[in-house]
Amino acid sequence: MNSFELVTKLRTFLPTEAVLHETEDLRPYECDGLSAYRQTPMIVALPQTENEVAEILRICHAAKIPVVARGAGTGLSGGALPHAEGVLLSLAKLKRILDVDPAARTARVQPGVRNLAISEAAVPYGLYYAPDPSSQIACSIGGNVAENSGGVHCLKYGLTVHNILKLRVVTIDGKILEIGGEGMDSPGYDLLALMTGSEGMLGVVTEVTVKLTPRPEKAQVVMAAFDDIRKAGDAVANVIGAGIIPAGMEMMDKITTHAVEEYVHAGYNLDAAAILLCESDGAVEEVAEEIQRINEIMNKSGAAEIRTSHDEAERLRFWAGRKAAFPAAGRVSPDYYCMDGTIPRKRLANVLSGIEALSAEYGLRCMNVFHAGDGNLHPLILYDANRPGELELTEEFGAKILQMCIEAGGTITGEHGVGIEKINQMCSQFKTKELETFHAVKAAFDPDGLLNPGKAVPTLRRCAEHGAMHVHRGEEKFAELPRF
Amino acid sequence: MIDPRPSDIIDHFADIIRAAAGHKSPLRIRSGGSKDFYGSRIAGQKDCRILDATAYAGIVDYEPTELVVTVRAGTLLTELEMELRKHDQMLAFEPPHFGSAATLGGCVATGLSGPRRAFAGAVRDFVLGVRMLDGRGDDLSFGGQVMKNVAGYDVSRLMTGSMGTLGLLLEVSLKVLPLPAMEMTLRMSMKEAEAISKMNLWAGKPLPVSATCFCNDELTFRLSGAEPAVRAAHAKLGGEEIVEGVSFWESVREQTHAFFQSQKSLWRLSIKSTTPPLSLPGKQLIEWGGALRWYASDADVDAKAVRGGAANAGGHATLFRSPDLCATVFHPLAPEVMKIHQRLKEKFDPMGILNPGRMYPEL
Ligand SMILES: Cc1cc2nc3c(=O)[nH]c(=O)nc-3n(C[C@H](O)[C@H](O)[C@H](O)COP(=O)(O)OP(=O)(O)OC[C@H]3O[C@@H](n4cnc5c(N)ncnc54)[C@H](O)[C@@H]3O)c2cc1C
Fold first, then answer.
1. From edge to edge, which strands make up the β-sheet containing A204-211?
2. Domain B182-253 classified CATH 3.30.450?
3. Does ligand 1 come within 6 angstroms of the Cβ of A76?
4. Contact at 8 Å (CB) between A321 and A260?
5. Does 3.40.630.30 match the CATH number of domain A218-259+267-320?
C-alpha cells in the first residue's frame, strides 16, 4: 500500500485533518526530545478514540506498515522518532480524564492526558499522582507508562510501575487487552510490569488506571553544601543508613549550581563542590523529627553549610534550581545532551571523577545532576551542534559514560529509555541470549515487528558490528550503516 | 564434605533442565516445599522429576545503605530476614512463609505478599533483578542491583509470581527498607460495611497505617513509623492498643489465625478496595484496606459465583487451599491475554517442561 492509498483508507473513518501527509504538516513530528535525530514519517494519524486506534493498527498490520506511537514527544531517547515508511500514531487527542474515584484513590485516564493534569484533577480530594518527572507539565501518561518514568520523589513513592493498576492496550493486530485490574494484583503473568517501560514496542496504551496518593500534611527540605563530592555521597548513605527514606534526595555539582543560580537565584552556595537537597514529608510531627535528624546527619557528614526551608515559598525556591537544571543547561550552552545512567550510589565519586577526566579529554563541559537517593545520574554534556564534529564527539563522550555505568555495576538507562539513542550500549549490557529473550518477548506481542521497529532492543547483527567497533577504539567501522 | 562451588550447582541445574528438555519430560521445581499446597497440580505430577533448588543458597551481596540485597534463591526466608534485621531493615512486603523451610525463590515465584502489602507494595514492587535458567538451561540475567533501570523489558517482574513456569530462579536482587522506628497495633469494634469505608477513608489520608484486618466484627490495624507520627495517628484514630500485635499479624500472615482453621476451602479474592461487603455463604476476613477478602467455607462452594463476584468487583479469585486437588485454582484469563501467556511460555520454555500446569493447564 502506498502513502496515497493509506491516506485514503484512513480517511474513510478519520476526519481529513486527523491524517497528515504534507511535508510541512509532518515536520512538527520529526523528532522527540532528542532532537539530534530527525525523520519525517510517511503519515501522521491523530485518532480520537480507542476504536480508531484499533482500526489504524489493523490496517497497518494487514499492509505490514510500521507504526510508531507518540505521546507528547518529550522522550529523551528517540523512542518516538518516526519511521520513514511508517505511520506516526499520535495519542495526543485521547486526552480525557474518564473518572476520578476519590474513595478508591484511583483515576482512569486516556493516554494523552498530561502527567500534571491528573494531579490537578485530584486536588479537590487531597490526592495526587505521585511520579513527577520534571517534564510533568508536558509529558503524557501513555509516554510515562512506555518509559516507566520517575521523578524526584520516586525513592519514597515509586516509579510509574508502582503507581498504575490497570491498562487497556491495543495490540498490532487491533485486539484489545485488559491488563492488571482494580485490585492490587491480577491472575497470570505480570504483563502490567512487562508493558511498563516497553517503549511502545509491545502495544499501544489506550487507557491507564493510576493510583492516587494522599497529599502529605507537610514537606520541608534541607539544603546542604559540601566542599567535596565524596562527602556529599557519604551524607546520602548516612541518611539512608539511619533508616530515613527521604521524599526526595537530589545532588548537583558545582558547574550545575553556577548555571542554575544565575537563572533562578535560589541562594545556592557557589563555593560548594556539591549541593544536596533532602526533603522530608508526612505528618507535621514526623517531618519535624526527621528534619532535625537530617540536619544532624548532614552536620556529622561534614557539610559546610546547612539550610532548612522555613516555609513553602522557600522550599520551592530551594527546589527551583534543581527543577531548572535542564533549561539552565540550555542557557549556558547552545545544545546539551542528557545522559541517564544508574549506578550503585557508593560508586558515585569514582564515576564523577571519571566523567571529569572525560570532560577534559573531549574538551566538553559537563553538568551533573543526580537523583542521589536511587543512584540515577544525569550528566548534561554541553556542546554546540553548529560546530562540525562536536555532536559526534559528544555522543562518544556519552557512550563512554554509559560504559562506565555498566562497569560500575549499574545500567545505561534509569528512566529515559533506550530508544534509538542507547541501542548500541544494549549490546554491552546484555549477553546475546538475553537479547534473544527480549526479541522473543517482543515477538509474543508483535510477531511481525511492526511496532516501533529498530528501537529499544538491538538486532544481534548490529551488536556483532558494534562489538567490532569497540575493538577498533572509536573508529566507526561501519559508518555507512544507518543508525537504526 | 566440601560444599560444591556455586557455578557447579548452576551447571548441575542446567544439566537437569537440558536433559528434561531433551526428553520432553516435565520437571517440578521445588525448594522448601512450604507452598506445595498452592497452585494447580502439575500434569503427571506423580512421575514428575523434582528439581530441588535448595542447594543454591546464600546472600551474595548486601549493602544496607544502598537498600539492596542480592540473594540466591535457595536461601531460607528466615535467614534472609534475620540478616536484614541485624541492620534494622526488612522485606517491606512482609511475605508469608507457610513453614520454616520457605525459601526466597518460592517467595518470589509465588509472588505472595503479607499484611503490609497495601501500604508498602508487593514482592514484584521490590524485585530489582533476577538471574535465572530458562527452559533451555540458559543462564540469563535481567534488571540489576539498582533502583531504576529501564534497559530491556522487565523480565524480573515477569518472573515474579510466574509459579516457576518460565524459568528457574537462581538469584534475586531486592530493594529493602528500614524497619519502622515504632509499631502499634490497635483494635475497635464495628460492622463490616463501616470497616470497609473506614479503611478506605484512612488510606486517602496521610496516615501511617501499615496493616488492616477485619474479622468477627473487629477492625485491627497497625500504625508504623516515627514515634511522633504513630502517637499522633493513634490520638486521631483511637482504638484500643493490642499488646500481642506482633503475633497477631504473624497469625494473619501465616494463616495460623483461628479464621483459617479447619475449613474445607479457602478462597482469596483480590478486588477493588471499596467493594461493599460480599454476600457469600461462610465467613470472611478482610485485609489490605478492603482489597483482599479471604473467604472460607465448610460447605461446597459454587466456584462460578465466587469468581463472578470477584470479577464484578474489578478483581479475581484464587482457590487458595482446597481438598480437591484437581480443582481449577487461578482465575481464568481472557482468551487474548491467554494467547500472550502461551506465546511467552513457548519462548521461555519451548519444550514445556517447567512446572507445566501449575498455573494454568495451557502453560
Ligand atoms: C525537560 C525534560 C525533563 C524530563 N524529566 C524527566 C524526569 O524527571 N524523569 C523521567 O523519567 N523522564 C523525564 N523526561 C523524559 C520524558 O519526559 C519522559 O520519558 C516521558 O514519559 C515521555 O512522555 P511523552 O508523552 O512525551 O512520550 P513520547 O516522547 O511521545 O514517547 C516516548 C515513548 O513512549 C511511546 N509511547 C508514547 N505514548 C504511548 C502509548 N500511548 N502507548 C504506547 N507507547 C507510547 C513512544 O513510542 C516512545 O517510545 C524529561 C524530558 C524533558 C524534555
1. A97-101, A106-109, A204-211, A164-170, A176-180
2. no
3. yes
4. yes
5. no
Give the span between the Cα atoms of A66 and A200, in whole angstroms: 12
pLDDT digits (tens, 9 = 90+) for B186-231: 999 999 999 999 999 999 999 999 999 999 999 999 999 999 999 9
Q: How many angstroms does the Cα of residue A421 sit away from the middle of ligand 1?
A: 14
CB contact under 8 A, B151 and A289: no
Domain A328-465 CATH (choose: 3.30.70.2740, 3.30.70.20, 1.20.58.100, 3.40.50.2300): 3.30.70.2740
| All CATH 3.30.43.10 domain ranges in chain A, comma separated | 3-90
Q: How confident is the model at residue A302 (pLDDT cuts 50, 70, 90)?
A: very high
Pocket test for ligand 1, best of A149, A161, A168, A484 (most atoms within 8 A of CB): A149
CATH 3.40.50.300 is held by the domain B7-178: no
**Residue nearest (by alpha carbon) to ligand 1 atom 16:** A75
pLDDT one-digit tens code per residue, B12-62: 999 999 999 999 999 999 999 999 999 998 877 777 899 999 999 999 999
CATH 3.30.465.10 in chain A, residues? 101-214
Within A324-389, residue ranges assigned H as helices are 325-332, 348-362
Over range B105-129, report the average pLDDT: 98
Q: Which long-range contacts (CB under 8 A, 24 or more apart) does A469-474 make?
A: A469/A424, A470/A428, A474/A396
The correct answer on CATH 3.10.580.10 for the domain covering A3-90 is no
Band (A446; pLDDT cuts 50, 70, 90):
very high
The 10s digit of each residue's pLDDT in A382-421 is 999 999 999 999 999 999 999 999 999 999 999 999 999 9
Which residues in chain A touch residue B194, judged by CB atoms under 8 angstroms apart? none
Residues of B whose CB is below 8 A from A161: 125, 154, 157
CATH top class, domain A101-214: alpha beta
Burial class (CB in 10 A: 0-12, 13-18, 19+), A110: buried
